[in-house]
Amino acid sequence: MGIKCPKCQSNNPDTQQYCGECGTQLKPVNTETRTLHTPAKDSTIGEIVSEKYKLLEELGSGGMAVVYKAEQLKPVKRSVALKIIKLGMDTRQVVARFETERQALAIMDHPNIAKVFDGGSTEPGRPYFVMELVRGVPITEYCDKHKLTTRGRLELYIQVCQAVQHAHQKGVIHRDLKPSNILVVVQEDKPIPKIIDFGIAKATEHSLTEKTLFTEQGQLIGTPEYMSPEQAEMSGLDVDTRTDIYSLGVMLYELLVGVLPFDPETLRKSGFGEIQRIIRETDPPKASTRLSNLGDTQTSIAEHRKTDVASLHRELKGDLDWITMKAMEKDRTQRYASASELEADIERYIRNQPVVAGPPSTIYRLKKYIRRHKVGVAAVALVIIAMLIGITGTTIGLLKAKKAEKMAVEEAETARQVSDFLVDLFEVSDPGEAKGNTITAREILDQGAKKIESELAEQPLIQARLMKTIGSVFYNLGLYEEAELLLERALEVRKQVLGSEAPEVADSLEALGNLLNSSGKYKESRQLHERALALREKIFGSEHPKVASSLNNLANHFQDVGEYEASKPLYERAIDIWDKTQAPDSTDLAMAMNNLGLLLYNTGNYEEARRMYEQSLSIKERVLGEVHPDITDTLHNLGMLLSAMGEREEARKYHERVIAIDEKLFGPEHPNIASTLRSLGILFAQDSKFEQARSLFERVLEIDRKNLGENHARVGSDIANLGLLNCEMGNYAEAQPLLEKGAAIKEKALGPDHPLVANDKSNLASLYVDLGDFEKAQPLLERALAIREKAQGTEHPIVALSLSELGYVLTKMGKIEKAQPLFERAITIQEKALGPNHSDVAITLNNYAELLCETKNYERAQSMYNRALAINEKTFGDDHPEVAVSLRGLSRLLCDRGDYEQAKSLFERALRIQEEKLGPEHPEVAETLEAYANLLHKIGRKEEAEELEARAKQIRVKKIEGT
């Protein structure tokens, strides 16, 4: 007849104790298992156990026992957890299992395993044991609550692996590892996971208890979602330490992706036999695949890991997929042999070393090396990997074309040779090859440059390709001299082998042109870009994407030298070509839009620039996702634009997003991050948040020093920025040595005629202007003007700024006749290049108006001050320090003209802005106080005037002395 299951109504054989479909118990417990003792009542709160432990509250209740929080009364007082067998559960096998747990915990001593302090039996004979009180939360719950990143979760998980390894070394298998049995507590502000509940543990090397541990045939021991295939067999014969490895794999999967490999609800709805089959036979999806299939919940899962869906998917795909799948292999012989092996592979992942679970291919290990040495080598990685992928893609495509079979074979051989060369180059990172020495990215690049010349002389095209590659990396690192030598050599080799009109020659012309443009060698750069454009038009026709690339680069050159009218139509033509010849979501198109946006920004067309940036960003995000290195330039530009438009909070959000992306992709010390931190620091400085700005500038300097060395031009700029910040704060004694040191580093690195050197001359002159030493400022500004005119032409807006600065100094020195034509020329240049409402125009108008006041030309001066004030209010808002400068100038003018009431009102407004934004002891405040005091003297308020003069003097003395 069989036995009908009371739960699922299925028929089972008479001999079966548990339902084969749902696992429900079909027969009462074996009558041979007799009760040892049944007390009259269960334990109660307040009861004293064995005269030593007072039960305080119930913490939890399981199948066989209850856990209480108890107070230990002697020999020491402390809070403990006391676990005692439930009333009526003290059967022979339950007692055996209880003893197993107590003995298992007693023989282990590990900080991540709950400790056993004591054990015994109550007076009625119910076994109990006393253990460490663990008031924590399940590990998955803790990670989600605190939004731990993937790395943070792995670091916590490593401690669990170490604890499991300890248990295994003691001969104990847990057999029920799951999040609810791994509680996280916080000790000294650090999360510590603790493994609890060894209630169904199994001994592997020795008897845990003298009593018999009886597990009935056919009884499922463990939790199905975390259960290994051998556990699901229920024979108990094949269960060894690797069953815990499987459970660890499931937990790792859940920590990483937020869900279990198999949906618990679906799994438990299945029949008992189906649950066993799934566990034994069905391979779970990879973690990254599981995430992709979660629909809308993906976003929440990613947010709980402080990332976005695309980034989390990339983190899981590859190493972490391989590690989890190896831990959860159905065949236990293919799993990690121990918890320590699993832990070691996770450590390798964290250190960006090849994992045991991953494929041991050459390219895989090469990529791992590059990620492990992000600083500097990030550029190497991007260029080299892109090149290898390009070569491989070309080879595959060509092999499909029978007519090009010979070319495909040649390309395949080239790919092999390039790959061999690069692998050989990077082998110095192997501990056996490096012999304990630390190899820097720069040393690898230098070594590669030498090897190209010596080892590839008989393969000139491969030689040229690698010269261009490593030259481009040097360029990206700011090592212009080294880059120029390699790129020039690559161009020469290609011309010799292929002739002067080959497409590869155009590629080299373009690369070298970009480098020379960045080096400030504008004349040579223009010639190379024009040659590349002409050659590509001849080879490909006028509507080819390669032609668009040349147009874009030539437009970049014109923008850099301030020839904005020549630049714009080139960008527009490049955009038109890419729009016609490529997909609507082309990243080339987005790049050109970004560059055109920068041009519009530089010319003061802010609304048009914003529209262009937003279109560019939209394309990039659709194609590349929201976390990709190629979107950061547009985000950065949007931040700068919004800052100029006075939308400071919005601007800051864009800069912070760039930092978050770069830190995620490259780590916290990459040069890309330094660049954005610098911009954010400038934003803080403009908002007069000087301490925040200083903190960022100091971090930038630290990053650049570490990556580039003490003598790099970028380090010189970082030091100079700190000097400028001190100038803004009025700390002149600190500012001067920083400005001088920064200028010296840059001049040595770039040469005396580089435009960036002119910036340093101008900055140092500004310091002397603030100190009132115009004699020292004049020659510095004249030198800056000469450098800029030579490098960037006579019509560049930066030249106009030099003219304005020099005109201001000459005015202060009383050299009116020399100063006035400089202002006239500056305004003409600025209005032509930037438009009439640019903030740079306002600077010149303020300076020129001051000169006109000296010559008593008040009508024209007042018109200029009013115009400058309107520009600054529109650009920066009503309470910006630049607005205060215009107000102060206008107040002085009104005072000179006898309009004291209006002048007084404007002085008070200017002073309020400066004290609020710059602080009450800033030199700009001192200058306004002195001007205001002059007004008060004129209207007979002598005492007030003297108070303002005394305060101004105190500020100036304090700042000059550096106190």
CATH level-four homologous superfamily name of the domain at 136-360: Transferase(Phosphotransferase) domain 1
> How much of the residues is beta strand, in percent?
5-15%
Helix fraction by DSSP (H/I, runs of at least 4) = 55-70%
Supply Rg: 37 Å
Rounded to the nearest angstrom, the distance between the terminal CA atoms is: 101 Å
In terms of structural class, how would the helical and strand content be classed? alpha+beta
Could you tell me the number of beta strands? Answer: 13
- The CATH level-2 architecture of the domain at 136-360 is identified as Orthogonal Bundle
Mean pLDDT, to the nearest integer, reads: 80
| Count of individual helical segments | 40
Shape label: globular
Strand order of the largest sheet: 3-4-5-6-8-7
- CATH hierarchy, class of the domain at 136-360: Mainly Alpha
Low-confidence stretches: 15-25, 27-41, 203-220, 360-366, 372-409, 426-439
